[in-house]
Structure formats: C-alpha cells, structure tokens
Amino acid sequence: MTDDLETFRAETREWLEANVPASMREPVRGEGDANWGGRKADYSRNPDQKLYMDRMAARGWTVPDWPVAYGGGGLSPAQAKIVREEMGRIKARNPLNSFGISMLGPALLKYGTEEQKLEHLPKIARGEIRWCQGYSEPNAGSDLASLAASAEDAGDHYIVNGQKVWTSYADKADWIFCLVRTSKESKQGGISFVLFDMESPGVSTKPILLISGYSPFCETFMDNVKVPKANRVHEENKGWDVAKYLLGHEREMISGMGLAGPGGNPLIEGAKASVGLDDDGRLSDPILRAQLALFEVRSKAFTAMSERFLDELKAGRAHPAQPSMMKYYGTELNKSRHELVMATGGSDALEWESEASNGGAKPRAWLRTKANSIEGGTSEVQLNIIAKRILELPS
Amino acid sequence: MPLYLNDEQTMLRDAAQQFVGEAAPVGHMRALRDANDATGFSRDLWKQFAEMGFTGILIPEADGGLGLGHVEAGVVLEEVGRNLSPSPFLTTAIAAVEALKGTAHGDRWFPGILAGETVAALAIDERAKHGNAVGMQAERSGNGFKLSGKKQFVTHGHVADLLIVAARTAGSPDDADGVTLFAVPKDTAGLTTDPQRLADSSIAARVTFDGVELDADAVIGDVDGGRSVLSKLLNAGRTGASAEMLGVGGGAMDMTVAYLKERKQFGVLIGSFQALQHRAAHLYAEMEVARAAVLKAQQLLDAGDARAAEAVSVAKAMTGLAATLAVQEGVQMHGGIGMTDEYDIGFYMKRGRVLAEMFGDSNFHANALATAAGY
Asked: Is the Cβ–Cβ distance between A66 and A129 less than 8 Å?
C-alpha cells in the first residue's frame, strides 16, 4: 500500500510538473485573478486558466475524491491528500474556485437523486456551470429559517416569488441553489431546496457595492419563476436538512481562511520591508514584533487544529457542530491577520488604485475579511451553536 | 499519523482518568496543603504511579520501562493537571528520564524511578524568568569539576535524590557551546537547598552550589556539548507542561460549564445568558486549538521530526494563553464563590500560573518563534 502511494506520488509529481502552466504557479492577485468557470467566464486575459482547468478536469482532479461517474478522480483520501501536497509543493493554484464544488456538490452527493447527480455534478467538475447560493433574505439573515421566498405548487412545477440578498456572484453565476418556503405551517419544516437556471424568465440580479469597492454580492429577485419539481433536492419541506448539511461544508471552507498559504510568510516579509531590522536582527518596532509573534502562535496552533479537524472528519470522529468552532476561530484569526497586514504595510497599504499597491489589493482584502465573521453564519451564531450543541448550555 | 489518539492511547487515557481521579483528586492536594506537608507531594502516591507503570512510560523497554512516547506521557499528564495532583511525575519521569535516556546514568537512576522511590529535580533556571543563558560555573578540578553558583525554581529540589544541573564549562552565558549537564546526587557536599512554598502550594527550592566537587562521570552527554541534552530535556518538559496545562485549563472549563448549568440568578440558570454562553464557547475554541497544538508537538517529538522544536514552542505558548483564559473565566463566572478558598476553582488559577511560567512562558516561546523565523 505504501509502495503504491509512493508510486502514485511520483506519477502525480511528474504529471503536475508537465501540465501546470507557469502562470498557474503564481499567487492569485486579487479577486479578479481567480478562475470560477461558468458560461460567462472570460479567459481572454489569461488563456492558461482554461487550459489548466481542462487538463485537471480531464483527470477528475478538480474534485479528486468524487466518484469518476460524476466527473471526479475517484481517489482515496490518502491519494487526494498527495495530489494536494504535490500541488502545494509547486505552488499550483486552485484550478477552479466553485461553490458547486465546496457547497452544492457535497449536498447533492448526499441528498440528490441519481438523475440530479449525473446532470449537475460533471458540469461542476468541468467548470461549465457556475453556481450561486440563494439563502439569505432582507429579513432572514442570521435567523435564516424565517425566510419568506415562496414556491407555490403548480402541478409538475413550482412558481417561485421573492427576494434573496448577499447572493455572492449571482450576476456571474449560471444556476442558483435556493431555499424557498413551500409551507407556512412550520418554520424549519416548511422549507424546500430547489435548483434553477439564472436565465429563467423572471430572475433578475443587482450588484451591491461594498466597503472594499467590489460588488461580489447581489440582490436577486424572483418574479413568477417556473421551477420544475424535478429540480427539488430531497423531499418537499425537508430542505432545511440539505441547507444545514451544506452550511457545515461552507463553514469548513471559510474556516480555511485563517491559514497561511504555502511558501514564505508575506506578513513577516512585509514587516521587515516596512519597519526594518535593528542591529540584533529584530524588527525595529518591538511592539509590532511581539504582536506578530503572538499572532504566529495562534496561527500555527490553528494550522494544527485544521489538520486535526480534517483527520477527525475523515474518521467520522468530529462533533457535528465542530465546523462552527472552526468557522468562528478561522475567520476571527483571518481578520487579525489582515489588521497586521495593514499595520505592517503602513501608508503603502492604503493606496487604493496604484500599481505599487497592485490595484489596492491589501486594503480591499483587509476590508473583505470583515465579512468573514458575518457570512455563512455570524461569529455570534457560531458561538450560540457551540454553547448549545457542544457545551449543552441551557436555553 | 492522524491527529487524534489511537485505540491504545485512548485505553491508556481511560485508565489514567480513573486512577488519577480516584487516587489523587483535588481533595488530595488540598489535604497536603492544609497539613502544610513539608514534602509537597505524597510518596505513597508516587509509588502508586510506579505500580501503574506510569513512571516508566518514557523509559525504554530494555531498561524495564514501557518504552512509550510523549503522546502517552501527555495522556497521563493531562489527568494529573485535571486533578491538580502534586507529584514529581513531570520533572522525574518525563524531563529527567529524557535527559538520562541512552546514557550510563540510566543504569543508576532508572530502577529507582521505575520503583517510584527516586525523585529527580531540574536545576536549570538562574533568574525569575526562564531563559536560554547558562551562567553558573563548572571549573575543571582534579579529574572532575567544581560547581559554584545558584539556581532557582527547582521543583521538589529540597527532597530530590538527583539534581540535573546545567553549568558552564567554557565561554559566556549566551553561548550555545560550553554548556555541560551534570547528574548531582542530593547528598553531595557543598550543596544546600532553601525550599519555598509557591502560590499553588507546591514546593520549589533555591539551590546553592558552594564548590560542589564532582567526578568526571557526573557529566551527562559530552563536556561543553550539553545543549543537545538540555534541548531534549526542555522539549520533553515543555511538551509535558503543556499537556498538564491542558488538564488544568480543561478541568477549570468543565467545572465552570457545570456551574453555568446549576447556578440560578434572576430565577433562571445563568448558563442561559448569552453573554456567558459566548464567553464559554470562545474558551472552548481556545482550548480545542491548544489541544491540537499539543498533540502535534507530541507526535513530532515522537517521530524525531526536525519541526518538533517549533511545534513545542507553539504548544507551550498556546496552552499558556488558553489555560490562563480558562482559569480566569472560571473564577469570574463562578462569581464570589470563585474567590473563596473553600471552593476548588481558585486552585486551578494558581496551578495554571506555575505551569505557564515553567520552562518559559508564552512570551518566551513567541519570542523563540520570531527569532527562529529571522525577525
């Protein structure tokens, strides 16, 4: 077995060396530089993105551990880990960023019909269809289950009406997975989980400008949208089960944000460049040095926690509410990291448009992280979940 | 290796939980304190640790021990921490054994440690804050050495059969080379101890070496090359202290969460207040992250991995932060009763402070990370 894995590692290394284009071994520069696939993707600026994604998808390596029948690589956990490690070794980018992979895919694998899996999963794996998430509404944010968007039974289809908000990249997405109310009799027990094409008649979106100067989020309006019942995942009125399962995966994904990427430590390098070193080789600002060092303690400890969490998940030993703890800690840590990025960058990190600031990448990323502890369930909601479900404190 | 306990380690944890919980619960420590016990721990308990095999946990099987690793040692230490059990386990069976392992001194000292009769103490600190500098002098004298100087924070130093002493045989205090480790029996002439009771009611000595004459065979490892042995001792001690702090912090957190579920104010259980729920949940997160950091350090040490030293510093610094939060929140959430001597939560605060200071506090280890990373 060990020999087999070593052979697999050697073959993986060889294939990646030969097939990952040089420009895909560079760090992603800002939100516009990552590949999200989909019908509206524009590869004219960097054709390597498409080349790399297609090569990876052909091996099933955009989703290494999904079954081959659904566009995956059919790899064992140990093999998938080797692929990730070897990609990290050459600093290969993620070939495809996708809510389809991180959120909808796992939910379909668990709750979808065979037809739904065969229809949607391979298109996700190949980056053909880009998905967005229709969860939050203007009056249903943290109290998600109070959502009002309605799906009226019309025989073989539903008629969907209502409004969603914070639908990330809805203006760039092809399809949406959406929570709708199919019954008013029960708050959580009256919700269904449906899928529909964003080009369906009656769907419109409007971007929301954020403090970072970007508009990753949209308002999405549904006006008498016809959704076939075949597009409902899991039973009618049981969409909350699917939503919760999917949120667990979303929290896992967001929790990874507290981790430093591969390679050197840009935070430390930035500090050295801005405040310099004294004669003893220490940062000239001793308070900043102490803040960075104590941050590194938590950051490295959280890296160990992430490894432990994944190991426990794989072995089925993790507490079902542990993703809340990971999401809470990871996002709070990431906010601290970006405060330090700004503190080390000084006035250079404040330039909003300049070439030196890479189009304001640092201040925009800093501002973006402030949403981490709001989206996917606020930090306070995560703390509620830990208190009630893990510590079992009274209501 | 997955980052959780395997089946054998889980069984050992269950055994340690039951044994330490029954033989040395918090009341055991309280009784010793109330009796103003001059030893600071129970020799009977130390024998029971031996009967359980715990004192031989790191001693190689060839020498009569269990030949286990730091993960297993940590499993026992966590229960010691949870019950605030006073014992020479950390200094003797973990740090000293790691220093003596593979040397001729093992033949002399391991049988006593395995029998629960021998106690070892570590004379490595020279100032109130743990540091890397070794200033105490060991001059060459005849075919051996003569030690002069002072050490402090020598836990159990007043009753130890063996002192492991770091002294300088060449160079200046901050030099890496020129340090030598010595095994010094307690009855050696010129050695005096001044025992002091600490805040947690454990006893640590100030030790004076007044021209203490030692034979050449008192040297552990190589003359002038003691840093490598000292590093092994410190890595083991720091990881062990981290595991014990997990127990102290976890014990304080468990007591506190239980209290939140039983104490009523304003007609309701105080655990239903969101302000307290959020603080308890945050504490849980800090303790979980610390637990992962400790297991990572233990596994890397056991694997002889080059990244172990960094992981050990992360573990000691992180458990220092998390356990300190746990005991502070413990006293606060208990309210007035948490301030009384009658209630146990205050003992956790005292023990946590001692362990946080031992072998370098969180700042010391954060500084070590920064220095290693070149900033």
From this structure: no
